[in-house]
Amino acid sequence: MSYTVAPMRKAFGAFMTVLATGCALLLALPLFSILWTVISRGMSGLSLAVFTELPPPPLMQGGGFGNAILGSLTVLAIAALISVPFGIMAAIFVSEFARGTKFANFVRFGINVLSGVPSIIMGLFAYAVVVLTTGTFSALAGGVALAILMIPIVERTAEEGLKSVPMETRQGAIGVGATNFQTISQIVLPAALPSIATGVTLSLARAAGETAPLLITALFNNFYAQGILQPIATLPVLIYNFAGAPYKNQQDLAWVASLLIVTLILIVSIVARSFARRQHFG
Amino acid sequence: MTVSNTQPNPSSAATSEVVISTEKVNIFYGAFHAVRDVYMDIARNQVTAFIGPSGCGKSTLLRCFNRLNDLIPSARVDGRIMFEGTDLYNKQTDPVEVRRRIGMVFQKPNPFPKSIYDNIAFGARINGFKGNMDELVERSLKRAALWDEVKDKLKQSGLSLSGGQQQRLCIARAIAIQPEVILMDEPCSALDPISTLRVEDLMHELKQQFTIIIVTHNMQQASRVADMTAFFNAEAAEGGGRFGYLVEYDRTQNIFNAPQQKSTQDYVSGRFG
Ligand SMILES: Nc1ncnc2c1ncn2[C@@H]1O[C@H](COP(=O)(O)OP(=O)(O)O)[C@@H](O)[C@H]1O
Ligand SMILES: [Mg+2]
Description:
Helix content of chain B: 25-40%
Distance between the termini of chain B: 29 Å
CATH superfamily of the largest domain in chain A: MetI-like
Structural class of chain A: mainly alpha
Shape of chain A: flat
Bound molecules: adenosine-5'-diphosphate, magnesium ion
Distance between the termini of chain A: 46 Å
Oligomer: heterodimer
Number of strands of chain A: 0
Largest sheet of chain A: none
CATH architecture of chain B: 3-Layer(aba) Sandwich
Number of strands of chain B: 10
Radius of gyration of chain A: 24 Å
Number of domains of chain A: 2
CATH class of chain B: Alpha Beta
Order of helices and strands of chain B: EEEHEEHEHHHHEHEHEEHH
CATH architecture of the largest domain in chain A: Orthogonal Bundle
Largest interface: A-B, 22 and 26 residues
Number of helices of chain A: 11
Helix content of chain A: over 70%
Radius of gyration of chain B: 19 Å
CATH topology of chain B: Rossmann fold
CATH class of the largest domain in chain A: Mainly Alpha
CATH topology of the largest domain in chain A: MetI-like fold
Strand content of chain A: under 5%
Number of helices of chain B: 10
CATH superfamily of chain B: P-loop containing nucleotide triphosphate hydrolases
Shape of chain B: globular
């Protein structure tokens, strides 16, 4: 009896290793090529004016998109204000009050379906519910559309975070005389906070780049919006408008805006990871 | 002193004062009859040990004493468990209040994912403690023989401690709310021998003030710490399945040296279980 590995098996092992490594590298390629393109095309146009000035009319030089930056932040803030409480409440319900019941499964199924719905449909929904009732395209409508997009992500990560808190920890709290509410609000929720924060930041990163739902809800505004019930400029819609425009200056600004969004999403993802890393039990 | 008696006669404790007494307690998980007809009296300021093979219902019975079985939807308790004259399973009895007076230390150390300080303070705070919190934290940690090891790092997470320290933190957490009874479900099963001895020493200290009921797999441990010992066993039921029951309940030295029941004799001499 010998312990040498059969040559065929050895060759196959080596081949699979190379294949897997190759696929992994291939996967990283688009990311780096996107980063490279965005940085090389957007970096040159980056200036202070970009952050402070308004979008330039065709054929004008310079300008910026301060209104779109502020608009994106406004719409995202509205979306977060709506989606975070809803998502967390739903997660608490599914994980703490209805765990294992048919109704919890039904809620989870609904959330899964929601996460598969194309974002343009969320835009249509917000259009029907907000734009048509208020009579105007607005930051609020955009926020509602993005919120619906974010809820499934927030709910799922929050639910995972809550479920990662061991049953024994809950029993410990119950065992020192905590009520169910005290256990959830003072022990379980704080322990799940890192993964909830991860979910919120990831959902923000996802929503920050959405364009389609904003086209039919927030629309665009060449100036700063006066309040949340007015059409508002956002970075993705600005990119959409300017990238297709036949003017070099507007195209360049679209690249700068792309660079800003990609940087923002990168930073947010890194922040999300750092939240995730702080988690540990026992 | 009462010499042991067999089921289903009530076993009475050696000392006069009874804290918890059970009458014909039967516990079910759904249709499964886990524990059958337990009659026993638990004596104040004594350590009572529950021993017996796995799956005979020791934990199940223990969890009934502070209504922790309420958390298991399928669990049902029949019979009466009296605690200082009140029926624990009376409709008027508030389970939260029961758990404030009957604390618990679990098998696996389960500190809260909070600072060492807050691990102790949490229970006191939710129970409306108005006194000096720093003092309470220090006193509780001292009584759990943990103070010297953690006094310089009270702000650190309770989860950063070693297993043995975590378990003593859980004991400190339990005594901080000033319960009358402390239930311990195999508190040393996840600990190394040195930590185990420390926790056992602690029990001798704590019984001055608390009544302790401890489930243990370790017969040496029972003989070292317990004044009273209850031996449980499991038997096959007619309809299939196994139910646990109390075989013998007596002073620890009698259980180990002069058991009345053959199965007790077999168990303590290590012939099964
Ligand atoms: N949550 C539960 N649901 C259903 N059956 C359970 C549950 N907990 C324990 N049991 C069953 O009850 C019996 C007694 O269990 P347990 O009290 O844990 O025994 P012990 O602590 O003596 O090892 C076992 O047969 C076990 O399978
Ligand atoms: Mg057990």
